[in-house]
Design brief:
It contains 22 helices and 14 strands. The protein is an alpha+beta fold and about 700 residues long. The strands form five sheets. A four-stranded antiparallel beta sheet has the order 7-14-9-12. It has a four-stranded antiparallel beta sheet with strand order 8-13-10-11, with no helix packed on it. Helix 3 packs antiparallel against helix 5, helix 6 packs antiparallel against helix 7 and helix 13 packs across helix 14. The longest helix has about 60 residues. The radius of gyration is 51 Å and the shape is elongated. The N terminus is likely disordered.
């Protein structure tokens, strides 16, 4: 939605009616209506891009610039190796390594370009106003004029001195022009120029590291990188010391030649120009080297009156005349050795400058070595701090179990659980970390960790994202070792467990019923503690938690998410938003309590049906046999009556025979009554109920919350 503004059209600096538009000042293409531009309400033209000092771009640049600062600090002492001594038979001379000079100049110039770029970036980096630091981060000042004014008053001079190419100018322009007349001052001028720039360049590392630490907390992200960074700084100090020792050794050699040259009284006068390798082809120099004793009097292997002190090794071992790699490695070893031993191996002379150099080596060696050991110990201890805490906790656990005299089986279970918890979490308290984060970030992290796992549970597969977020936010991790009982039959159920890894055994005896046992195995994606869900879905849940109908035991190491009773009650109120029938069928299908009840119900129904069929067959067989007995008795009674009538007709019956027939008829009547009572009793037995497993409590998915 765009809103035209009359004031914006009339302002020429906003480009209200421009003749020519510049692509540099437009952030995006603006729509046109006629001859006017239409600006959005929040549109602002930024002519100069100002960087945020806490942004990612500035942070990445600080890391890159810190690397090139270290490169520059490493390259500058390499200028000290340009001067060397060349042995030519009985004589020697001073020369300059041109190949090394080209390589060192290239890297030094490349590092200078980064210093110049750093100055430009600081002119475009905002700063935090001091008056706005009362609360929070503070307000950024983005005015380019204020930024430039502040930078020119603070660090601009130091950055400008650090970026000047002074060693290149001195080495390639100034020194060659004065070498013929001032060859003995070559090393002194080079040392002075390098030291002038080395101090500000070394100073820049400290505020740069402070800015990185202020933005991220640490210079390096890992402990090993931090240890390597501190070791690199110590190696850099050794590199500087070795290069300075080499340059001072060369100058010590030149000083000896100069003194002996002034003392020498020969047929050919000694001049300092003879010590330059550029004079090797001169005739007077060749005649002089045949008669001079300057080089023999400056050989430390001979008995001479000139003392070289701590620089004698560089001359006796021909370090000053060796190839670059050999002399560099030897000088680096010299620096490491004397910094680590605080200069105890240095055999100094009575020279004031040499003694001061040895004192500085001892002081800086002590300070740098202490800093190295302290920082290395800090970084390396941070790697094993969790392991050490776990060892202390394990030792305290062992002492406690020994003090309480726990049996061996309980001790093994405790050790197994502590070991498994260490392997699963590495000593990190996840709950503390999550609770320290904002609610929105904690919700997103929980969703990332738990959402895919929760979707594996069929009970939650059909839920919407809002409900799944509520579940993920309240899930807590749970670890169980092999043989650990999650809950026992009859104990109150305090949590609902969703298995991620491992297997659980769920068994029941139906409250201790004799001869009844049911056992199933719960695998990843399944759950236990569904009694708690039925309890939470009641409109008015009881204060007492429901009792468990099953015993749940871990068959192996189990990782799961647990939903506590109070959290489940909140989630259960959200269940009513779903379709009740669908959720009810899903709950019944995946609930092992309902599965067990259904299996027992089918078994009891089948057994009842078998007993009913058996009773029916027995009843039919019994009724058929009783019917045959009645017919036989009736036939016998009829035959007896017929025979009595025949006897009565043939002769006069006596009283004795009449009295015998009546008892047989009474017995027949009693037998038929007994058969009827037996059939009636068998019919009543068929209606007797056989005890079975009680039906689980039905969750009320349809009742709305009060």
């Amino acid at each position: 939605m765009f809103k035209p503004s009359t004031t914006q059209f009339l302002k020429p600096e906003l480009g209200g009616i421009p003749k020519k538009t510049s692509n540099k000042t437009r952030l995006f293409k603006l729509p046109r209506f006629g001859g006017f531009k239409v600006f959005p309400e929040n549109f602002e033209i930024e002519r100069d891009k100002i960087l945020d000092p806490g942004g990612d771009a500035v942070l990445q640049w600080n890391r890159v610039f810190l690397f090139w600062c270290l490169v520059a600090l490493y390259v500058d002492p390499l200028f000290f190796f340009l001067s060397s001594v060349k042995n030519t038979g009985r004589s020697s001379c001073m020369t300059t390594d041109l190949k090394l000079g080209i390589v060192v100049t290239f890297f030094r110039t490349l590092a200078d370009l980064f210093y110049v770029l750093h100055i430009f970036i600081k002119f475009r980096t905002a700063y935090v106003s001091r008056t706005s630091r009362v609360f929070g981060r503070g307000e950024l000042v983005k005015d380019p004029k204020l930024i430039a004014r502040r930078y020119l008053r603070s660090d601009f001079i130091v950055d400008l001195v650090a970026c000047l190419p002074l060693p290149q100018i001195v080495s390639w322009f100034i020194l060659p022009s004065i070498r013929s007349s001032h060859s003995d001052h070559t090393t002194n001028a080079l040392v002075l120029i390098v030291l002038v720039q080395y101090i500000p360049r070394l100073y820049l590392i400290f505020p740069l590291s402070a800015e990185i630490i202020k933005a991220t907390g640490v210079v390096t992200t890992t402990a090993w990188a931090g240890a390597a960074y501190n070791l690199l700084q110590y190696m850099l100090a050794s590199h500087i010391l070795g290069a300075a020792w080499y340059l001072l050794s060369v100058e010590r050699q030149a000083t000896c030649w100069k003194e002996e040259c002034h003392r020498e009284l020969g047929p050919i006068q000694c001049v300092t120009d003879f010590f330059d390798c550029g004079a090797l082809n001169r005739d007077d120099r060749n005649k002089w080297q045949n008669v001079t004793v300057v080089f023999s009097n400056c050989d430390p292997s001979n008995k001479i009156r000139f003392t070289f002190g701590i620089f004698a090794d560089a001359l006796t071992k021909n370090v000053v005349s060796s190839p670059f790699l050999q002399k560099y490695l030897y000088c680096l070893w010299f620096g490491l050795q004397n910094l680590s031993s605080y200069g105890q191996n240095l055999d100094t002379s009575t020279s004031v400058l040499e003694t001061m150099f040895a004192i500085l080596v001892a002081i800086f060696g002590l300070v740098l070595f202490a800093l190295l050991i302290g920082n290395m110990q800090t970084y390396l201890q941070s790697i094993t701090v969790r392991l050490e805490e776990w060892r202390l906790k394990r030792r305290d656990t062992e002492e406690w179990m020994g003090h309480r005299q726990l049996p061996q089986n309980l001790r093994e279970r405790v050790r197994r659980f502590v070991q498994y918890k260490w392997l699963a979490t590495r000593g990190v308290d996840e709950e503390t970390i999550l609770h320290s984060l904002p609610a929105d970030l904690r919700r997103d992290i929980q969703r990332h960790l738990c959402l895919d796992l929760v979707r594996r549970v069929p009970l939650f597969a059909q839920m919407d994202d809002q409900l799944l977020d509520a579940i993920c936010e309240r899930l807590v991790s749970s670890l169980s070792t092999q043989g650990n009982y999650i809950v026992r039959e009859g104990d109150p159920v305090t949590e609902m467990l969703f298995i991620i890894r491992g297997k659980l055994e769920s068994s029941t005896t139906n409250g201790g019923r004799t001869g009844f046992f049911n056992s199933i195995t719960l695998k990843p994606g399944e759950f236990c503690g569904e009694e708690l869900l039925a309890w939470a879905l009641l409109p008015k849940s009881k204060v007492n938690l429901p009792s468990s109908t099953r015993t749940v035991r871990a068959l192996e190491e189990v990782e799961a998410f647990a939903l506590q009773a109070e959290d489940l009650k909140f989630v259960a109120n959200q269940f009513r938003r779903l379709h009740s029938k669908k959720l009810q069928h899903t709950f019944r299908y995946y609930s092992h309590q309902w599965r067990t009840w259904a299996a027992c119900f089918v078994q009891v129904a089948w057994r009842r049906y078998k007993r009913r069929m058996l009773a029916k067959s027995l009843s039919l067989a019994e009724s058929y046999s009783s019917y045959e007995e009645e017919e036989a008795l009736a036939a016998a009674a009829a035959e007896e009556i017929m025979s009595q009538q025949e006897e009565r007709q043939s002769s006069t019956p006596s009283r004795h025979h009449t009295s015998i027939g009546k008892p047989h008829f009474a017995a027949t009547v009693l037998a038929s009554r007994f058969a009827k009572n037996t059939r009636r009793a068998s019919r009543k037995m068929k209606d007797v109920e056989v005890p079975m497993l009680p039906k689980p409590e039905e969750p009320d998915f349809s009742v709305d919350a009060d």
